[in-house]
Design a protein that fits this description.
transferase, two-stranded antiparallel ribbon, magnesium, phosphotransferase activity, for other substituted phosphate groups, globular, Glycosyl_transferase_4
């Protein structure tokens, strides 16, 4: 269909902008002295610029503006165009919150309060979870108060989940890129071109950024980039998949983003069980556990990539994408092989 040309345009433009602007952002960061210093918890050994999220956001924004200027939004219903800008502006606000945290080291309460206010504004403009799916019952329409609470938890929770897994070179950007590609495929298969357009720009930007962020990283995305990616992925899930009134569609975002979501949930439960604040940073994340088990930096990242690809392939299969079950079978074989290799390394 013609609108798929615009999705390809968004992907390519976003990737090219990120590839072109990231070195410039890095040079500015180094000259200004705005760097992340090594410490006992962090894996990097040299000061690193934390403003890579600037490039990712610019890539996404320029790609969407170009598609809009060239008439690509003309294929969308008016409410869908409104949702694109709602998610984009909300993503900008989350990016600015993270950027302020990178520069001024905001308190956890201040960050959460600001994020909740932005998520509330997003809910008011239509980025809403209106249904839940209950096994053996089906879809249940939610009253506004419950919709508001669940939407805030989802948007704020996913923004922080992506930020929490951003502990190794290339981990958050790679996981987000894989999730965005899966959301692009699933959104197109479910006739949700607006959500697919955001996902296409996000996929291009994150995969372009991976050129500079994969181990050994030259630049970090920072809290600004992580919050932007998390909110935007969550927003795409809401406006594109949860809006589809089918049980399968409602479950898709939670399946696609299962790896960061379950990692965050497990860490929070573990911290509370040990009498610690859920906001206290520690080494309880999945990537820390894999490193402690004996995997190398790159092996840990690649294993989590495969895990993300596997759950994404299940979403592709369940959503009815052509050859979706073949993708799922291939991803299962790949994950099995990578797990076998990882087990051998741990034992040795």
């Amino acid at each position: 269909m013609p609108f798929q040309i615009y999705h390809l345009t968004a992907f390519v433009v976003s990737a090219l902008v990120v590839l072109g602007t990231t070195p410039l952002v890095r040079r500015i960061g180094l000259k200004s002295g705005r760097v992340d210093l090594p410490n006992a918890r962090k894996m990097h050994k040299a000061p690193m610029v934390r403003f890579g999220g600037v490039s990712i956001f610019l890539g996404n924004l320029i790609a969407l503006l170009l598609v809009w200027w060239s008439g690509g939004f003309g294929w969308l219903p008016p409410d869908k165009e409104y949702e694109i800008w709602g998610v984009t502006i909300g993503g900008l606000a989350f990016f600015l919150i993270g950027l302020a945290d990178d520069i001024f080291n905001l308190s956890p309460f201040m960050r959460l309060f600001a994020q909740a206010m932005v998520a509330l504004a997003a809910w008011q403009v239509g980025v809403q979870i209106d249904f839940i799916s209950i096994p053996f019952v089906g879809l249940i329409s939610l009253p506004p108060s419950i919709s508001l609470v669940l939407t805030l938890l989802w948007l704020v929770g996913m923004a922080n989940a992506i930020n929490w897994i951003d502990g190794l070179d290339g981990l958050a950007s790679g996981v987000s890129g894989i999730a965005a590609v899966v959301m692009l495929m699933v959104s197109l298969s479910m006739d949700q071109p607006a959500a697919a357009l955001i996902a296409a720009a996000l996929a291009g930007g994150t995969l372009g950024f991976l050129r500079y962020n994969f181990n050994p990283a030259q630049i970090f995305m920072g809290d600004g980039g992580a919050y932007y990616l998390g909110f935007t992925l969550a927003g795409v899930g809401v406006v594109g998949l949860v809006k589809s009134v089918t049980t399968v569609a409602v479950l898709m975002p939670y399946l696609i983003l299962a790896v960061p979501l379950l990692d965050m949930s497990a860490v929070i439960v573990d911290r509370l069980r040990n009498g610690k604040s859920p906001f206290n940073a520690d080494n309880r994340h999945l990537h820390h556990r894999l490193l402690n088990a004996g995997l190398s930096h790159r092996s840990t990242v690649l294993f989590i990539y495969c895990l993300t690809l596997w759950v994404g392939s299940l979403a592709v299969a369940f959503s009815g994408v052509p050859s979706g079950y073949a993708y799922a079978a291939g991803a299962t074989v790949l994950l099995t092989y990578i797990s076998w290799q990882a087990r051998k390394k741990v034992r040795s």
